[in-house]
Write a structure and sequence with these properties.
The complex is a heterodimer of chains A (97) and B (307). With 97 residues, chain A is an all-alpha fold. Chain A is built from five helices and no strands. The termini of chain B are far apart. The chains are: A mainly alpha (97), B alpha+beta (307).
Chain lengths: 97, 307
């Protein structure tokens, strides 16, 4: 149940970000929220590689944004969200097993 | 006014120079091969966090520019004898030349000259060094490095005991002496304290037991009280200082003081045999005070299983 709610929330966030023509900082916020949800679901313990990938992309997104390369920041934010989802998925798969 | 003009010219020139090179070639061959090598050595399992960071930065470095490969050529040429400043030097002086292509291609990325282009390779190298360190680290303290534990299929975070071969001791049963029935017992090495080297070391020209060794002797006494069938021999040794006769007596005194302590702890005195070796059978050379301290000792030997 928790898995479904989390997935819907993140999916809604990503789709909202794609449709609304949002800014780089909003992308960064979405990436941070996804990372936070992954951490709260215990992904940093159960899926450390995936969680670290998400975290690394989020760091890159922040660095890129601070260097005014906004396209790279948006790209890295999207990747971060993608890896956060993977981390959450792996975490819940581990629980089901 | 003229000075200001010159300064302005210089500043604009410097800006021109610094922004002239827009793109930079980054050689990623070494970074990629290092990452691949660490991946084969289970870097992802041993150090997931650092590995993920290194991989991500490398991916971003590649994606941020045009990827390609660099081909290298070697030109071998033969020269005629020419004067150094001859006109048309290349045409007239080169006798023959051969161009050979180098076999190894190098992967490169052409990127904009930015902060990332310089900082990313540094970060990748940093994370790769951490991964390498974690691969060879032994987190659980069992003496097996992480990558070997992954290969063996064990958990690198949980202590794994090394496999010990059980030791077989033949024990003659006292009650069935007439039948001479031999019972075999299997005991693990870690259960029997006397299988471990038990040594008591002494100060120079002294035979009294140091306080630090009392816990060890208590373990030995407990073991001897539990196993009534074991007899031990305590042998005293000295360092190389002093005459032989004196050292023999001193060695005997050392063995005796250990025996006294054990009997005080409740071990029967007839189960303990003592011997003084003295100036012989050194463990290490007697070159310095630490080595001489190591040699001044009393050791335990299981001499027989009592009838």
């Amino acid at each position: 149940m928790r898995k479904i709610i989390l997935s819907i929330l993140i999916f809604a966030g990503v789709s909202f970000a794609q449709n609304a023509g949002i800014t780089t900082s909003e992308y960064l916020d979405q990436a941070r929220d996804a990372l936070k949800k992954a951490y709260e679901s215990g992904a940093h313990v159960k899926a450390p590689y995936e969680y670290s990938k998400a975290s690394a992309y989020y760091s890159i997104a922040k660095e890129s944004a601070s260097n005014f390369s906004l396209d790279n920041a948006v790209e890295a934010s999207k990747k971060s969200i993608e890896w956060s989802l993977k981390a959450i998925e792996k975490t819940f798969k581990g629980v089901e097993k | 006014m003229r000075k200001l003009f010159i300064c302005g010219c210089l500043i604009s020139l410097s800006f021109g120079v610094s922004f002239a090179g827009d793109s930079v070639i980054v050689d990623v061959t070494e970074l990629q091969s290092k990452l691949d090598r660490l991946s084969q050595m289970h870097g992802k399992e041993c150090s997931p966090q650092e590995f993920a960071y290194a991989e991500t930065y490398l991916e971003t470095l590649k994606r941020g520019g045009k990827t390609g490969s660099k081909e290298e050529y070697i030109v071998e040429s033969k020269f005629k004898e020419c004067g150094p400043l001859e006109i048309g030097y290349v045409k007239t002086c080169i006798d023959s030349y051969k161009v050979a292509k180098k076999e190894d291609k190098r992967d490169i990325v052409i990127r904009e000259n930015s902060v990332d282009t310089i900082s990313y390779p540094v970060k990748i190298n940093y994370y790769l060094s951490l991964v390498e360190k974690n691969i060879y680290s032994d987190k659980d303290g069992d003496g097996i490095p992480c990558y070997k534990e992954i290969e063996m299929g064990t958990n690198p975070d949980i202590y794994d005991k090394k496999e010990e071969k059980p030791q077989t001791i033949a024990v003659i049963d006292k009650k069935e002496e007439e039948k001479q029935h031999v019972v075999t017992e299997t005991k693990r090495e870690d259960v029997n304290p006397l299988n471990q080297p038990v040594r008591v070391h002494f100060y120079f020209n002294r035979a009294d037991i140091k306080k630090e060794y009392l816990p060890y002797l208590n373990v030995v006494a407990k073991f001897l009280k539990m196993h009534k069938d074991v007899k031990v021999k305590i042998v005293g040794y000295t360092d190389n200082i002093g005459p032989k006769g004196y050292n023999d007596k001193l060695a005997m005194k050392r063995a005796l003081s250990v025996k006294k302590y054990l009997t005080k702890m409740g071990v029967e005195s007839d189960r303990i045999v003592i011997e003084g070796i003295g100036k012989d059978r050194y463990l290490v050379s007697n070159d310095n005070s630490v080595d001489r301290f190591t040699n001044r000792r009393a050791e335990f030997y299981v001499i027989s299983i009592a009838d």
